[in-house]
Design goal:
- By secondary structure, the chain is of the alpha+beta class.
- The chain has a single domain, classed as Trna Endonuclease, Chain: A, domain 1 (3-Layer(aba) Sandwich), CATH 3.40.1350.
- Helices cover 37% and strands 32% of the residues.
- It has 3 helices and 5 strands, in the order H-H-E-E-E-H-E-E.
- It has a 5-stranded mixed sheet, with helices on both faces.
- A hairpin with a 3-residue loop joins strand 2 and strand 3.
- Helix 1 crosses helix 2.
- The longest helix is centred in the N-terminal third of the chain and has 21 residues.
- It is globular.
- The mean pLDDT is 94.
Length: 130
């Protein structure tokens, strides 16, 4: 897998996303449901002047047929960066495979896996570049 350098805009968005995740975790802490973190995370993004879409449906093309019931992205920031949000007790290795699949199917280069159910948010943020 060859990692391409990110654009300055992708790097800037990455910093803003991490900052938003820190703010949410600092204010709420661990132990809540994923959708609560998603709403608050998106509020933090909007406070930073970032556009986003929640629960973005991505069609899948398989065997020459387009299926609208494909992939769902938790949050897509500025149409450039995918954020997959979790609030789980244990991180499953399949989550990273999910991130790589999201990048391949969308043509994006940067995705964040953010697990809010951790004592220290730094432990819950994984950045994947493709």
């Amino acid at each position: 897998m060859i990692e391409l350098p990110l654009s300055k805009e992708e790097e800037r968005l990455g910093r803003e996303i991490v900052d938003a995740a820190y703010a949410v975790h600092r204010n709420l802490g661990p132990g809540l449901l994923e959708h609560i973190y998603e709403v608050c995370f998106c509020h933090e993004l909007s406070k930073r002047g970032l556009s986003f879409r929640r629960q973005v449906s991505v069609p899948i093309v398989y065997d020459g047929i387009k299926f609208d019931e494909g992939l769902r992205l938790d949050v897509l920031v500025e149409e450039l960066v995918i954020c997959e949000l979790k609030a789980v007790e244990t991180m499953n290795p399949v989550f990273v495979a999910q991130l790589l699949t999201q990048l391949k199917l969308t043509g994006k280069h940067l995705v964040f896996l953010i697990d809010f159910n951790v004592p220290v948010i730094k432990q819950g943020i994984k950045r994947v570049v493709l």
